[in-house]
Amino acid sequence: RAGGHDVIFVGDCEVYANFTPLEMYREAGIKAYVRGTSQQLVWQSYYILEETFRYETPKAVVFNVNAMRYSEPVKEEYHRLTIDEMRWSAQKVGIIQASMTEEETFLSYVFPILRYHSRITQLTAEDFAYLFNDAQITWQGHLVNKEVKPLGRLPSKKALADYSFGDVCWQYLEKMRLLCEENGVELILIKAPSVYPYWYDQYDAQIEEYAAKHGLAFYNFLDHVEEIGIDYQMDTYDAGLHMNLSGATKLSTYFAKILSEQHGLPDHRGDVAFDELLKAYDEATK
């Protein structure tokens, strides 16, 4: 089934902050969409991808492997950011069941008011400012942020007792790989160039081994910061955790060339709808 996008990104904030699809379109005519959410866990990426394939079949899927470090749910709030906006489907049921903590109930996802009925007592002026602000802040799933907060002093790197990724992470990465294979879609693994939380060499070795075993491409952009042109004094909005618009533009342009030249993604430049979208994006982000 043909869809409108060449590549779909799944993963955590390291995809929605660091990759801007419209710069990829500008550079190489690639139609991309980012389905990233804050602290998106591996099993959540799997169900989001399964849901995506109900609507379209891209040529490639890009998964950011940072989530492999988390084998247990982190915060209910992050689950809500990922799950609450999904349409009801077998995939939404699956993602809820896989993600719930002991304190959560399935019914509270069916009727969110059961979870948020007391939220009105916590409202601030900021909530109302957001409510009435209709400015577009995301473009093809990319969260635009033009602020600059330079990289300062990083916390010291701590040795871990165990560098192994959890079994559940491997299980869902494998499910993701097989899902892509069944649909004739190339799975590409990446690690975004975020300097913290620290990405250990032991983590990298496990992903490299998995990618080599299954014939997958793996790009650790931390190894290519100079080539990309990233300047952590100018290209991050939160001291190196995520790229700002400047950094995301550089990274997206760099990756677009790879996807075009090494993975054969087509050049759609001249597409009327995307040309108009790019024009609006440029106007909004200038």
**Broad shape:** globular
What structural category characterises the helix and strand content? alpha/beta
Instruction: Give the spatial strand order of the biggest sheet.
Output: 2-1-3-6-7
Number of helices: 13
Detail the poorly predicted runs. Answer: none
Q: Helix and strand string, N-terminal first?
A: EHHEHEHHHHHEEHEHEHHH
The counted number of beta strands is 7
Give the distance, in angstroms, between the N- and C-terminal Cα atoms. Answer: 36 Å
Give the amount of beta strand, in percent: 5-15%
Radius of gyration: 19 Å
Biggest beta sheet summary: 5 strands, parallel
Helical amount: 40-55%
Q: Mean of residue pLDDT?
A: 89
Would you mind describing this structure in some detail?
With 286 residues, this protein is α/β, with parallel strands linked by helices. It is 44% helix and 10% strand. The chain is built from 13 helices and seven strands. It has helices spanning 13-16, 21-28, 42-55, 76-83, 90-99, 106-110, 113-116, 125-131, 167-182, 201-214, 225-228, 245-263, 272-285, and strands at 7-11, 32-36, 60-64, 138-139, 142-143, 186-191, 217-220. A five-stranded parallel β-sheet has the order 2-1-3-6-7, with helices on both faces. Strands 4-5 form a two-stranded antiparallel ribbon. Helix 10 (201-214) links the parallel strand 6 (186-191) and strand 7 (217-220). Helix 2 (21-28) packs across helix 13 (272-285). It is globular and about 50 Å long. The two termini are 36 Å apart. The model has no long low-confidence stretch (mean pLDDT 89).
